[in-house]
Amino acid sequence: MLGLEHLGLFLAATLALNLTPGPDMLYIASRSSAQGTSAGLVSSLGIGAGCLLHAVAAAFGLSALLMMSALAFSLVKWAGVLYLIWLGIQLIRAGAREQSSQALAPASLRQIFLQGALVNIFNPKVALFFLAFLPQFAHAGSPHFVWEVLALGLLFNLCGTLVNAGVAVLCGHFGNRLGSRPSWRRWQQTGAGAVIMAMGVGLAFTERR
């Protein structure tokens, strides 16, 4: 198993990486601001579910397919691009309905969870990151290598979920305080949609390295 010195280094790197803003954190912040803390927390769990899938894939070598196959990488990337742009358009349309004083039915927690998971799953850079990062802290020659990588992935995911939950609470707090203003609700929806669409456009320019 891992030595304590390696585990300490892994935890330090994990915390630094999870505190760095990225597409997942931006999505959670947008959801929390637009629909409250509960939506943000559920988004965090959805992101965590997507990371769990990537951790399992990295442990059992499935993520290597994305590194070796340009076609597989492109398919996952463009699925993510289209999904993020579609999701952003839906939120911008919701903001327009808010502006025209039509009733806005918020997304259910189940929908929010699935959206969070898909935002993470359809980002091939996450799969490549797990494949490149986790094995560095496991013993390559050990018969327990797969389970070490999986355990590290679960630990990374737990840390990330806790950080994202903190972001959800913070953004949800300020969003709830301002959410009673119709003009703010409109900008919440429109702004969240614009951010998510920008994430999709950014993903379109992601290259396999």
Task: Put the structure in a nutshell.
InterPro entries: LeuE-type. It is a multi-pass membrane protein. The protein is mainly alpha-helical and 209 residues long.
Rg, nearest Å: 18 Å
The overall pLDDT average reads: 76
Range of helix content: over 70%
> Helical stretch count?
9
Main pleated-sheet profile? none
Assign an overall shape: globular
The parts where pLDDT drops under 50 for at least 5 residues are 99-105
Class inferred from helices and paired strands = mainly alpha
- The total beta strand count reads 0
Topology, please?
Layout: H1 4-19, H2 23-35, H3 37-59, H4 64-68, H5 70-99, H6 109-121, H7 124-133, H8 145-178, H9 182-204
Main location: membrane
Transmembrane segments: 44-68, 75-92, 112-133, 145-175, 187-206
Membrane topology: Multi-pass membrane protein
Characterise the protein shown here.
With 209 residues, the chain is mostly helical. It has helices at residues 4-19, 23-35, 37-59, 64-68, 70-99, 109-121, 124-133, 145-178, 182-204. The chain has one domain. The protein is built from nine helices and no strands. Helix 2 (23-35) packs parallel to helix 8, helix 3 runs antiparallel to helix 8 (145-178) and helix 5 packs antiparallel against helix 9 (182-204). The longest helix is centred in the last third of the chain and has 34 residues, at 145-178. The two termini are 30 Å apart.
